[in-house]
Design a protein that fits this description.
Layout: H1 2-21, E1 31-37, E2 40-42, E3 54-55, E4 60-63, E5 68-73, E6 76-80, E7 85-91, E8 95-109, E9 117-121, E10 125-139, E11 144-158, E12 164-168, E13 171-175, E14 184-186, H2 189-194
Parallel strand pairs: 8-9
Antiparallel strand pairs: 1-3, 1-5, 2-4, 4-7, 5-6, 6-8, 7-8, 8-10, 9-10, 10-11, 11-12, 11-13, 13-14
């Protein structure tokens, strides 16, 4: 009886030791619907989203025309406007990555600590957020688009050749497949006005 108890205790201690010593993995965390006007769906299930619903990593969301949808995570908020499609590629305590294949998005990043990142992928570029507020438009058919920055800065990396450009507050960048140079311009008044709705985001 005493030998059996000792063996059980040893097994128990080994299990605890293995659990404590195993490498830590980044905990996944869902995005929460914090604002919804109109209709939006999870593409994998066809389920219609509602306020305070969760959207998990790897799920794709599609909005109907005239819809406004806010998804909020620990690293920031992500607004999809009508006729948009996006996938939550990565979402954990250290990294948030959204793949936007079509439509308009607004980003309001949280205060990112060292080692944390928030990325927006389009078919042609990756936008790396640096504590900022910005807007992006993606046309999936011809792979064109626009990024405009309201606050902070966004680093754009073109996927085809890894060319990088930094867009700062009040600036914009138009993306077209036939444009070899990434030319920054002053953001249009209409673009800056459209980004004012970021103030409504949580």
């Amino acid at each position: 009886m005493g030998v059996t108890m000792i063996r059980l205790l040893i097994v128990f201690l080994v299990l605890i030791f293995c659990n404590v010593c195993k490498p830590k993995t980044a905990e996944s965390s869902d995005a929460v619907v914090t604002f919804l006007k109109g209709k939006a769906f999870v593409m994998e299930t066809g389920k219609e989203l509602s306020p305070y619903a969760n959207v998990t990593e790897k799920q794709s969301v599609q909005t109907e025309s005239e819809t406004v949808l806010d998804l909020t995570s620990k690293l920031g908020s992500f607004r999809l406007l009508g006729g948009s499609t996006a996938t939550i590629a990565i979402l954990n305590a250290e990294s948030a990555s959204f793949q936007v294949s079509e439509g308009n998005v607004l980003i309001k990043a949280g205060n990112l600590a060292k080692g944390q990142s928030l990325l927006v992928h389009t078919p042609t570029v990756v936008a790396a957020v640096r504590g900022t507020q910005f807007w992006g438009r993606v046309n999936g058919k011809d792979e064109s688009g626009t990024f405009a920055v309201r606050e902070g800065a966004v680093e754009i990396t073109r996927k085809s050749d890894n060319v990088k450009v930094l867009i700062e507050a009040g600036q914009a960048l138009d993306l077209k497949p036939d444009h070899k140079d990434l030319k920054i311009r002053t953001a249009a008044k209409e673009e800056l006005a459209a980004m004012e709705q970021i103030d409504q985001m949580k």
